[in-house]
Amino acid sequence: MHILVLAFKSMMNRKFTIALTIFSIALSIMLLLGVERLRNDARESFANTISGTDLIVGARSGSVQLLLYAVFRIGNPTNNVSWESYQDIKRQRLVAWTVPLSLGDSHHGFRVLGTNLDYFRHYRFGGGEALQFATGVPFADVYDAVIGADVAKNLNYQLGQEIVLAHGTGEVSFMQHADKPFRIVGILRKTGTPVDRTVHVSLEGIEAIHVGWESGAPRPGLSIDAEQTRQMNLQPKSITAALVGLKSRLAAFRVQRFINEYPEEPLLAALPGVALQELWDTMAIAQRALLAISILVVLVGISGMATAILTSLNERRREMAVLRSVGARPWHIFVLFVGEAGVVMTLASLTGIAALYVTQLIARPIIQSQLGLFLPIHPPSTHELMLIGAAVSAGLLVGLIPAYRAYRYSLADGMTIRL
Amino acid sequence: MDTQADAINIQNLTFHWRKEGAVVLDLPRLLVGRGERVFIKGASGSGKSTLLSLIGGVLLPQSGDVSVLGQPLRALSSAKRDAFRAEHIGFIFQMFNLIPYLPIIDNVLLPCRFSRRRRLNIERRGIGLRDEAVRLLEHLDLPATMLQRPVTELSVGQQQRVAAARALIGGPELVIADEPTSALDADRRSGFLRLLLKECAEQNTTLLFVSHDSALEPQFDRGIQLAAINQAVNEGG
After folding, report:
1. Does the pTM exceed 0.80?
2. Which helix (H) or strand (E) holds A320?
3. Same domain, yes or no: A312 and A183
4. Range of the domain at A87
5. Is residue A121 domain-shared with residue A187, that is, in the same domain?
6. Is A418 an 8 Å CB contact of chain B?
7. 36-75 of B, contacting A, C-beta below 8 A
């Protein structure tokens, strides 16, 4: 009988303790893999949110802040970009296209984005995919709205339905633009980006609902109804930010410098890739802390295993003596114990991986709706396999301690049965 | 291997545990012939377990020589001594002889896992390993119907008989029994001894039987008082 078969049979004799040990290590490995997976997939999901855009332009602030409010719809802009400056940028020789973005309103916690048809033409996500309509068409009228997939799903909205936008970006708003309802004319296909959680209207629509709101609130005693508003000049005076596409990527720095040094007003142009990296870096510390904790949890699991094996050592001294008497070598005894650690770590890894997939299946829809992170289910990556390998190696290494003790015992005891 | 050589030949052996420790064993000479069944009487603490470890090659004496079946053990590396023990010697201990997590048959067959020679000894006779184990167990009054039971459910007497079957399987030249009957009551003691001696006689196995119980001595070819031949104890008083 191979000595590992003996190790296995011996473990079967102690199923319950061993199963508990395997369970605790499996949980720790699941945690480690889960944290790693979240780190990598969240980064990917972030990076997939915007592509094809060469510059993001907004009022002067930080590039991370600009990225957050313009692309991720998180936080609020500090200032606006005047319509004249936007037109000036648009006219630049090196600029191929621009998409204006106007933020500041919401609908049941979903952000409202004022833009124009160029948004549907030029916005790209993932590997350069364009927005597609699940149903309906882009907005044409002032009071038309196009909603993202999650908005439609969560609020159970259909084409033709009328919605009222709220002033401000809070989940609950006390100031509604109730006098000017919008009609849903299009629902976008799921993208796995913040677009899914956005209500899109035209810039004119944004302008229309704020007529008479110049001070930030409706002027008392003055109300202009929706049809009257249509007749007014609805060209916006400012926008929140703009996405800019260039004729050549190589021009990015030149255009960026032009915008950053724009004399009329303080502006900021950010390279999306660089800003994403910066954003990622700000989160790096928290991520590293998570990783460190999960590694520590694995080590705790492994030392639990070593403790369990060490505890069993004394009861097993007579087993070792019997094995020696029938011709087992001290290294057989050594392998018997290291083998146990190996079997425990292997089974724990497999259980941990299985548990990870089960958890992912359950948690994926929740993470997607709550955090807007799209986490794909994929087979273990090389990196993850290396992590598992490292955990198993650490387990074997720690398993050497009881194995070495057993080896010393069997050398010292020989065939003498000590109790 | 010299088939004519003595089963055990000890010359001028001294052994002490620690470097400067007291001498535990000092045996000028001990000879056991092939096929002899020898009773060694020794109280506990008289160094008998140490003597058995020296014959088994688990320990080496500080001086003197131990030859088993004509093979000087000192000439072998510790790995070779482990292999030699597996090939040629069967052991029976006082108690707890069995591996609790192995079935009875696997306990009996354990030496065959470590010794190719003992495995081949059985296979050469055209018998399967398990059949041989069952045959031996039946000879030792353990019917085949019992073999499915976990070893932990066996009585002490039954456990000792399984241990005897394990010591004998594959026909080792030498069987060493270290107080195998001390945990048995008088009836079972003689029953066990009768079966063991009969089986050794059939296989022409040399038997070295260590016990403090002189009542068993008459059933052996020869009896040796360890205290009488061990100079270390004599010197100590």
Report:
1. no
2. helix A317-325
3. no
4. 55-270
5. yes
6. no
7. 49, 52-53, 56, 58-59
